[in-house]
Amino acid sequence: PIGRLASQDIGDIYLLPNGEEVEVIEKLILHPVKQDGVWDSQRTRAFFEDAPASLIASLRTLLKKSSGDESDFDPFAAWDSEHNNANDDVSRAVLRGISLRDQAILDKTQDELFRMPLKARLMLQGPPGTGKTTTLIRRLGQKLQLPQEMVEDLDTIQRARILNHFEHKNSWLMFTPTLLLELYLREAFGKEGVPSDNSKITTWDAFCEPVAKDKFGLLRSGSGGGGFVLKPSLIHETDKARSELIKWFEAFDSWQQSAFLVQLVEAAKLIANADDSTLKTLGHNAFQIIDSKQNSALTLVFVEIKEIADGLQSWVSGRRVAIKKELDRHLRGQINRDRSFAGQFLSYIDSLEYEDEDELEEEDLLPEEGTVRLGSRGEQLAFSTFRKTMQAFARSVAQKRTLPKSSRNARVMEWLGQRAISRDEARKIGNELLLISQAGFISNPVSRYFRGFSQRYRAFRRNHEGVWYTPGGIENSALSSHELDLLFLSYLKGANRMMERQAVTRDIENRYWGPLQSIAELYRNQIVVDEVTDFSPLQLSSMYELTHPDIRSFFACGDFNQRLSRFGTSSEDQLRWAIPNIEMKAVSVGYRQSQLLAGFSRDLLSAMSGEEGEVNAPEFGSHKGVKPAILEEGEKTEKTCKWLSARILEIDSMIEPLPSCAVFVSDELKVQPIAESLMKLLEAANIRVKACPNGDVIGRETDVRIFAIEHIKGLEFEAAFFLGVDDLAEKEPELFDKYLYVGATRAATYLGLTCSNRLPDRLVSLRSHFVTDWKNV
User: Fold this and answer.
1) Which tens digit of pLDDT belongs to each residue from 121-141?
2) Cβ-proximal residues to 758 (8 Å cutoff; 6+ apart), any chain
3) What architecture does CATH give domain 108-215+521-557+568-585?
4) Domain limits, the chain
5) Does domain 595-769 have CATH number 3.40.50.300?
6) Which of 365, 416, 498, 706 could bridge 420 with an S-S bond, Cβ 3.0-4.6 Å?
7) Are strands 583-586 and 629-631 parallel, antiparallel or unpaired?
8) Which residues does 16 contact at the CB level (< 8 Å), separation at least 6?
9) Is the pTM of this model over 0.90?
């Protein structure tokens, strides 16, 4: 398509669709605006073969100089003569407030990404300020519109199975590592004209936790249940587990599948030995299916068991109703013999506090419907409590166990005394309940698989203390953040292994596959991720599992050198494990920093990691800027803030109004004290200072904002100051180089660093880059 010409550079040779070969010798990049009903292009970028790149303030004004009658008139000749000696450091847009800068130029990398199909899996990597996030947003917007000429993408959408209610234009999610970046991504989406709402751009925690609680049942809800309590500050896992997240996950996922298969085998054996001939035959058939698939995926087992599931379910339902009627008759007899019994029983039930005991699976409970003469809420409560208690008692007798003395069921049994069923009755009912439970396990294995995740995980933890878990330090009902990520991914992968089969999704409304419906509601046609390296491999893999199984569209951007999370994705191998067959694309033209700061950032990266920086200046629009400033021996807050206020006042004297300024501190506890001290020094100049605890943004565009360093990933400012560089080197030795690199690359023109004592040893080689102030620039 001839549209590719827009991304070509001066001197490139391009083959037109008609076979003609042309060379690009001039290029204009227009920025259309409409004022007073008239169209113009302002700040037009002009590129020539034999002249430097230039800026045209108003293309309409320039063209008006043409007489229109002279066919050989060159409208650029007059402009060239006027600007022959123009300063190369052309004017540029100064950053106001906090935002993501627009990238103005479509380059070849962007052009290639925009033309790749919707089904592609892409990682756009590159140094700070290279327009990665803007490219991500623009590609997302392009793939949401899908005009008729995008035949391949339209065909992909039309062929994909309809698994939920989302239209393609609304079927996307974007993940970002911080709330602050989420806020400014929303602003960037607006600038690019891509519709979004609060539900589509989110952090991982904000997405994962409600789903784990409300849809997966992994986290406990207000109504109790068998899920866990999430405690983010808790650490159950060993250092080995945290440093080898992928191996830890693979160990659990393999173990839990095998454990569930063993449960299926044992259940099939038990019912195959039943006295009931119908159940015996069904159990034998189930055992043959499971045994023949021992080395196969669980999905194949589930698909084949479905053929006998209805027969098992029919037997289970009949026996449940029979036992329920038997227990209800017993309780009704006690009530008829003693008219005061019902009221006394209800009063006792009310006196018991709710306890979160290991409850029976929902499928094992006797049905509530059909109870004789359910005339009141109290009657329902009495019969329901009696049934649950008798079930627990009967099971314990059949299994030759005793009820825990302090349990609710044990206390109800003690209160009932002789009015409970006899041990002989309990043994008979208990044996039948065990058969019902095992038959129910086989007849509804998909539900049992997902409902059993918490139970299997508890068993895995017990069996792997000292390997993946700290011995003796496990809270049975609690989960750490890493543990939730592990369980969440295993749950999703289990569902997706089933959803990949057409036979399953065609029948997804069948009760047998019911749990998969909540998974299908999570699928999106496009998943995009900003600052991808700040997410762990487990989190990224879960994001990938959210992609529609027929489309698998995944686009991420980031930079391994900017990873600020200790457990983030640190290598290409980890990324490829999380996102199979992902393509890696690189960008290297930086649009953010001045020439001097870009040079400092390159040398900083080399000094810290030994890597050579790959940021190239754009052909047009790069400004020289000023050297970074430094203060050493700034141990006292008063001295640091005096130096800092002086630098801010210097900027204020050079650029009015004051451009965006940010101050980064190494610890959240330092945000407020620095803000208060700096405010006293700047209030005479009517410059306001705002503390931004936890990354919250407060105040006006011209306010100087104070952030803890972990909250500023992905943003940029005209001026940025990093306080206590040497303190951070001691506090975060593993991530110090990443924090410093990210902090230094937030600034477009003005960068300041302070040290409580001296410049860290690793930075001494960069001393020549620094000045102490900007008085003479």
Assistant:
1) 999 998 777 788 888 998 999
2) 632, 633, 726
3) 3-Layer(aba) Sandwich (3.40)
4) 2-82, 108-215+521-557+568-585, 316-440, 595-769
5) yes
6) 416
7) unpaired
8) 2, 22
9) no
